Amino acid sequence: MSTTHHGNGTIRLTNFAELGNVRDLLALPDAPAADLTAAADVPAAGEQRLEPSAAPAGRTYDLADLIAQLASVSGGLETMAREDARAREQATVELARYQALLAERDEAERALAEARRVRDTAEHLAVQSFTDEARAQAAQHAAAARAAELHCTELLAERTREAEELASRPHLTRCLAEQRRLAQEQREASRRAETERADRLARGLAAVNEALTHDRLDEAQKLLEPLAREFSDDATVRSRADTIRWQLRQRIVAPAESALSDVLRRPYRDDPEAAVARLAELHTSALPDDLARRVFGLWSNACFRVVQLRGWHEPHREAPLPSRGAVWARPELDAPWKVVSSLDEPKWQPGQTVPERIAVKAPLLEAGTAHRRGSANSSS
After folding, report:
1. Stated pTM of the model
2. Which residues contact 323 (CB under 8 A, 6 or more apart)?
3. Which fold has domain 68-167?
């Protein structure tokens, strides 16, 4: 936009950056007054006119007037802000005094209740005591208690009156109303949070129960973990955790116990090959230690019997980890070692050839000592 001068003396602005030029023109001493104050009837297309809409008839504001008005408004706002700050500070002081009065009032109420209790006790003793001396002393104590009761009553009335007077002041009234509003909002927020927490617990337990009903133990355990962290003291959550732990243990333990029961009965008892295959299906690393050792011992004994029945030679057993390992032997006296069986040891598979440098390092598997040595190797 640009500045346009018209023959009738009107100055039209099409660019706000030209305000400085307008001010310079207004300050010229030889500018005709009529040229500075006349207003155009209709602005040209695309032009804007800078005219105060609220100016009184016959008067035109220049830029200096506008700046002066803004400065006056700004000063008024600063004054208002200072006065508001003083009022707020005064309200803070009054609030502190009001809270102190309430505390003193509560203390006076407690003291009054104690004075009344002491007076009742003393009056009872003054009547019921056996000796005259005891009755006289009790009467004195009753009089002292009545005096204390009167003093507490006066103090309570005084503190109550002062607190009520302070509470009636406008600034403190507003502060107290704001406190009540904030307290109400906090109570409502606390109720909402508690409701949401209860809903979260109910939904979580329902999901856990659904997973348990359909025997999805891993899912149930995963669902229960956040509930156990947030609701660690909830009896139902603890009960579900115990149930899941027991069922997970049973999922691991039950196959091992079933296999042990099988190999101790016919036909496995009379078929060491079948017994070895049955026990080799188990994963002992996740079993309880005592159960894993039982499995390892029976598997070792069955492997030794398999070597004997096959007519193999020099059986060795490797047990690098507790209750896990492999047994190998020579099919012929000078033949390479072959794996007879492995228990939870995936790097060795039945029939696999074992390098001699590895095979000879493993302890010999001897008759009658398979179980004992298995336990010793597991412990090491």
Report:
1. 0.47
2. 284, 285, 287, 289, 292, 293, 295, 296, 343, 344, 374, 378
3. Helix Hairpins (1.10.287)
